[in-house]
Design goal:
- The structure is a single chain.
- This protein has 2 domains: 219 residues, no CATH class; 204 residues, Serine Threonine Protein Phosphatase 5, Tetratricopeptide repeat (Alpha Horseshoe), CATH 1.25.40.
- Helix content is 61%, strand content 3%.
- 48% of the residues are buried.
- The longest helix has 18 residues.
- Helix 24 packs antiparallel against helix 25.
- It is built from 25 helices and 4 strands.
- Strands 1-2-4-3 form a 4-stranded mixed β-sheet, with helices on both faces.
- It has 466 residues and is mainly α.
- It starts with a helix and ends in a 28-residue tail after the last helix.
- The structure holds zinc ion.
- Zinc ion binds next to helix 5 and helix 10.
- The site of zinc ion has 6 residues, from helix 5 and helix 10.
Length: 466
């Protein structure tokens, strides 16, 4: 306590002109820089089901979370269950965590906990208190403890990483137990106000506790109590034991991750064929089997299984199979009447495939509110408008895509091409120039960002699914 006061005094003397609080603008700026570091360390998930559905869960939670910034959720590829939040509204969840969840309210509980960290500004306050802690140091600490693909991440990284969500924050950013408890409390209120059972987070924490991984980590390494202690505390505060919102779609998202997001193997095929055989009426197993058939190139069989399904999402799945088998006109027929963004995403592919490029462009434009959750929307819009002959727009959106996925040098190349096509003195050209100038911001060490820092293209290799 005394130490903190002393530090504060010293800082007051040394930094007389800056306030202690980060302004919202500063917080947003720093958060964006940390985000770019996260993007360099992780591969983004690109599955429209996963990204758009998780965005819808966040949309449900956000009005009840009180975060001072619009929340942007990024789904990153990692088999390790994890979720973390930085500041400025940025939150992250791994594919491993989504896959580990049995019910949507578990993921909702975890995300609400992260929104709790955001709304209580735990990371931002750490930065304020620990000046001169810069975003670069903070990002390095965060990613180091996450054991992300950062050169030099020690052996401790992966071990801590397996203790899952917030362990990274609790250790590297010295989140206090109070912070964790506060995020749990705020998270629970958010979860229940959004119509999700309060048992989601506590059940998930108990599941984590049950994994060997957490047990192998000495408690002294964690500044938060073991998951089961937190789970018990949460349970004592639950007021909404039953989920009241529709969570039917979530199991399909998990099925996709289990099937499409890993190398296809006979074991995967056997698992889903077996599930379907045991319970032919279960629509999720049927969907899984249809995906398996699709991966094997037997789209006729996939279609047959989907047609036999009893599910309100049948037409969406059918449209997806049609797109996959390049039967674009049939895909347009079943997808055109649907209003959810996932269907729109496939509809855009169907329209593009059937030659209606204008329709595809319009449909993709309708998905722009999701550009942060699924940046590939920008890339596809750039390609389609380019094919339509609008080269300025095409290059602009390819540039925007590379900005969203954290590759400024590639973005600059496209933005420059775009300006050349628009004309330097045109309205559009000037707008893109502003965007281009923003990519050239200096790093805290005063040096311009170097091109050699460009991460390798981690693209969308594991998943090719329109
Ligand atoms: Zn936490």
């Amino acid at each position: 306590m005394k130490g903190r006061v002393l530090t504060a005094l010293v800082l007051l003397i040394c930094v007389p002109l800056t306030t202690f609080g980060l302004t919202l603008t500063e917080e947003a700026k720093d958060a964006k820089q940390i985000h770019l570091q996260v993007l360099r360390a992780f591969r983004l998930n690109n599955d429209p089901y996963v990204c758009l559905y998780m965005a819808s869960v966040v949309k449900r939670l956000e009005p009840n979370a009180g975060v001072q910034f619009p929340v942007r959720l990024t789904v990153v590829e990692s088999p390790t269950p994890n979720a973390f939040a930085t500041m400025g509204g940025y939150a992250y969840v791994t594919t491993g965590l989504i896959e580990m969840a049995d019910r949507e309210e578990e993921v909702a509980g975890v995300l609400a906990h992260e929104l709790g960290h955001l709304s209580r500004r735990h990371v931002a306050k750490t930065m304020e208190q620990e000046k001169p802690l810069t975003w670069a140091t903070l990002a390095g600490m965060l990613l180091g403890t996450l054991g992300a693909m950062v050169p030099g991440a020690g052996a401790l990284g992966p071990a801590l990483m397996s203790s899952t969500m917030a362990a990274a924050q609790t250790v590297s950013l010295k989140f206090s137990r109070e912070n964790e408890d506060e995020a749990d409390r705020f998270g629970l209120v958010t979860t229940e106000a959004s119509g999700y059972s309060g048992h989601g987070l506590s059940d998930f924490l108990k599941k984590i506790r049950a994994t060997e991984a957490e047990r192998s980590i000495p408690q002294y390494l964690l500044t938060h109590p073991y998951s089961d202690v937190r789970a018990a505390k949460i349970e004592s505060r639950i007021t909404l034991p039953q989920t009241t919102v529709n969570t039917d779609f979530f199991p399909y998202v998990v099925a996709r991750l289990k099937i499409l997001n890993k190398p296809f193997s006979p074991a995967i095929e056997d698992t889903w064929m077996g599930k379907h055989a045991n319970n032919p009426k279960d629509p999720v197993s049927a969907y899984g089997v249809a995906l398996v058939y699709t991966l094997k190139g037997d789209t006729a069989k996939a279609e047959e299984v989907i047609r036999g399904m009893d599910s309100p999402y049948r037409d969406l799945f059918l449209g997806e199979i049609f797109v996959r088998s390049q039967r674009f006109k049939e895909a347009v027929e079943v997808l055109a009447s649907q209003t959810n963004p996932i269907a729109s995403y496939f509809l855009a592919s169907a329209l593009e495939g059937s030659g209606d490029l204008l329709g595809a462009a319009e449909t993709l434009k309708g998905l722009f509110p999701y550009k942060e959750n699924l940046p590939i929307i920008y890339q596809r819009y750039g390609m389609v408008t380019g094919r339509l002959g609008y080269e300025g727009i095409g290059y602009e959106y390819l540039g925007r895509y590379y900005l969203e996925i954290g590759r400024p040098p590639a973005a600059r190349t496209y933005l420059e091409k775009s300006i050349a096509k628009y004309g330097r003195n045109s309205e559009e050209g000037k707008e893109v120039q502003v965007l281009l100038d923003e990519t050239k911001e200096k790093k805290p060490d005063g040096k311009d960002e170097k091109t050699k820092d460009e991460p390798q293209d981690r693209g969308n290799r594991s998943l090719r699914w329109y």
